[in-house]
Amino acid sequence: MKEVIRLDHICRDFQVGEETVHALRHVSFTITEGEFVTIMGTSGSGKSTLLNTLGCLDTPSSGEYYLDGVSVRTMNKDERATLRNRKIGFVFQNYNLLAKTTAIENVELPLLYNPAYNAAQRREMAIEALKAVGLGDRLLHKSNQMSGGQMQRVAIARALVNNPAVILADEATGNLDTRTSFEVLVLFQRLHAEGKTLIFVTHNPELSAYSSRTITLRDGRVISDTRNEQIQDASEALKNLPVQND
């Protein structure tokens, strides 16, 4: 399988006053194309630092990070920004949508930084991405006219629109109720079935049962890396949840 992410002995140190904080300690793992990986860890485990490293938002103190075959650590800020835009789709807990802006306009955003696409192409790609996440009837709705689940679907469409090498989700169900969380998990499992590479960062251990692999951090180290031989079906779990009434 094609290697999408490889970390080789990644360390990240921060200086806090006179103390050195070792946020990541020799973290090594490889993620191949089509995997759905949950990264687990409690507060202080190094999960957020690892997320920033994987997302090219921060650079390690030592070690090597390869994203889709490209070495990241030696890149400058502008080079990392370009790589991030082309190779990574982000889904955040707080959606990070522009207020009073239509779903199409929100999804088009990553394409604005890619000169390969003109305005008509950007709009067409945004519409296709929104249809792919079940929002074909919400194209012109603004973020303040949508539910939390719908806003997260817009965010997922935005992550998909550039056809990235990997989708990186940070606590993507953290602000959603149980039923809406499972609706989002159903969508992630569908994307996984279509061959997308997904990394789902969470502190909720129950969610790892719906991915194909779980990497757990503690004190900046990988303490376990296990493959899930029996992935639970989020759609079945959703069927068994009570329907919520307003």
Can you describe this structure?
32% of the residues lie in helices and 28% in strands. Helix 4 packs across helix 5. The longest helix is centred in the last third of the chain and has 16 residues. By secondary structure, the protein is α/β, with parallel strands linked by helices.
Low-confidence stretches: none
Task: Tell me the helix content.
Answer: 25-40%
Please give the order of strands in the largest beta sheet. Answer: 6-7-8-3-9-10
How many strands in all?
Answer: 10
- Briefly note the CATH topology name of the domain at 35-49 and 87-239: Rossmann fold
Whole-number radius of gyration?
A: 18 Å
Fold topology:
Layout: E1 3-16, E2 19-32, E3 36-40, H1 47-54, E4 62-67, E5 70-71, H2 77-87, E6 88-92, H3 103-112, H4 119-132, H5 148-160, E7 166-170, H6 178-193, E8 198-202, E9 213-218, E10 221-227, H7 234-239
Parallel strand pairs: 3-8, 3-9, 6-7, 7-8
Antiparallel strand pairs: 1-2, 1-4, 4-5, 9-10
Question: Which keywords apply here?
Answer:
single chain, 246 residues, alpha/beta, Rossmann fold, 6-stranded mixed sheet, 4-stranded antiparallel sheet, 7 helices
Provide a compact summary of the structure.
This protein has 246 residues and is α/β, with parallel strands linked by helices.
